[in-house]
Amino acid sequence: MGRPLPRVAGALLVAVTLLLRWPLTPRPTGSDSFEYFVQVASLRDAGAMEWLLHPAAYFGLYPGTSPAGHLALTAAFEETTGLGFEGSALLLSLAISLLGVAGMWLLAGELGVSPAARWLAALSFAVAPRFITFALWRLSLRYLMVVLLLLFLWALLRSQHRRYGRHPARLIALGLALGLALPAVHRMGLLLPGFLLAFALAAALSRWQAGALDRERAARQGVAFCIGLGLYLAYLTYLGGTLYAPSEGLFSVYLFEGETLPVRFANLAVHYGLLGGPLLLLALLGVGGTLQQGRPALATWLALAWLALGAYVILDRIYLVYLLLVGMLLLVGPGAEMLLRELPSRRSRAALVAALFVLSGVSAAVDLRDRIDHMERPETGYSYHVREPTIAAAFWGSAHADSELFEANDIKRTRRVDAYSGLIATRDADRLVQGVIDPAAMELEYLGWRVLFTEQNDHLWTWENRNEFNENISADRSLSLVNLAFPEATGSSSIPESIISSTHYRWIDWFCYRVYAGDELAFYWSYGYAV
């Protein structure tokens, strides 16, 4: 890219990042984010973390708690700006997205590639469909963790430079701060030892290859080792020897049917391709380019080691896919460098970069529009964003039944009504931040760190009498919210197949008073109703 282009290239990165994340919906999106909005509101109103009963509670490891890093940040931002949770969530999601692209730009700078290849690596993060939907006007703990992870890995790589290794105090302080922030933002941050193990493996491969007599041969051997290690760990995953065992049939919704190892990984490739976008194909060239380099950058070895170790959990498509996707996108830099090197002139290289920019941007925009449209369920009154009938019901609840407990036959509507009202959903009332639970009455049994990792627990303690608390909460609820699209059933309006008949809601109109009715939702006074 020519000398006058850096500022233009930077402006284009910022523009495409903001445009692809600018709301296409009139209200916030997501599912879990509305649970976090409720916790942010409680935290802001209390002015303190009154539920912080133990240091582990800040990291969401104490029963009834969630990692509080992003919640505290959002509450402070909302209180400072006075924008309310909708405006605060929008601005924060955009700001975090820009920070993520900047982090990928810094990380790609450690690849030792040309500015054009570095720019394409940063662009691949900006247009990856998975990271766009994470930041589309929502409060996503996972996305903030990914952004901080980029900065953490950059600090690790930077510490290996001789120039910075002489005075490491700032990098050490930054690394420690980010290392503590990762698990405080999302529980997946507890995989920090895995990140460090990948870095140690990358450093070992880099130094071994640098000291070899035939560096190109050593590079091929290093790549072969990473591929072999990844295939072995993936096979262990297929046999069920992984910490994160996925449900059967998770990937059969794609191109191929079956549960054999080749079919699973063929569908897995399609899955990552849909989440990573067309630029992800350059990562394959990045692996091939590493075979021809005399001395690949440490960042390239880190990406390869990361993906090799990540194969142990690669079949988990919900919580770990975005972590592995970062490693894949990091290889876009070497792949783009290899492709650009084959072109004879600066003009042809500029044309290729422009074509890839247009292709990836248009592809991401079309994919995003398709995802939003695909989530529309007119027959059950569900949409990707909060609908106005939901807000109307929530406002009625705040005006006439503030702080009352309520249940709902529509799982998706529950948290959305909760977020826009002063009501408390029984589904999430066992969260300590809600103030419904008496912490002194909780009976806890300590499990330990080993069980936390090996048995995929969310907390370090087992809450022995949680069911008893939930039964009491259910008995104390005053209102029942009914989706009139399926008034005699219960389930999720976003997945019509999940809706099943329920006697509880079938007879509610006979035994309870309807106190509010809209076009889509109705509230019933159902205190003591237990059919």
What do you see in this structure?
With 531 residues, the protein is an alpha/beta fold. Helices cover 59% and strands 7% of the residues. The strands form three sheets. It has a five-stranded mixed β-sheet with strand order 2-1-5-9-8, with helices on both faces. Strands 3-4 form a two-stranded antiparallel sheet. A two-stranded antiparallel ribbon has the order 6-7. The radius of gyration is 25 Å and the shape is globular. The relative contact order is 0.11.
Q: Could you tell me the strand content as a percent range? A: 5-15%
**Count of helical stretches:** 24
Radius of gyration: 25 Å
What gross morphology would you assign? globular
Which secondary-structure class do the elements indicate?
A: alpha/beta
What is the number of E strands?
A: 9
User: Whole-number average pLDDT?
Assistant: 87
The profile of the biggest β sheet is:
5 strands, mixed
Low-confidence stretches: 247-252
Spatial separation of the terminal alpha carbons: 70 Å
Reading side by side through the largest sheet, how are the strands ordered?
2-1-5-9-8
State the helicity in percent bands: 55-70%
Quick take:
The protein is α/β, with parallel strands linked by helices and 531 residues long.
Mind sketching the topology for me?
Elements: H1 5-21, H2 32-46, H3 55-58, H4 69-81, H5 84-108, H6 115-127, H7 129-134, H8 141-158, H9 162-165, H10 169-185, H11 192-210, H12 215-238, H13 261-276, H14 281-292, H15 298-310, H16 321-330, H17 332-341, H18 346-374, H19 388-400, E1 405-408, H20 411-419, E2 424-425, E3 444-446, H21 449-454, E4 461-463, H22 466-476, E5 479-483, E6 489-492, E7 495-501, H23 503-506, H24 508-511, E8 513-517, E9 521-525
Parallel strand pairs: 1-2, 1-5
Antiparallel strand pairs: 3-4, 5-9, 6-7, 8-9
Helix pairs in contact: 1-5, 1-6, 2-4, 2-20, 4-5, 5-6, 5-8, 6-17, 6-18, 8-10, 11-12, 11-15, 12-14, 12-15, 14-17, 15-16, 19-20
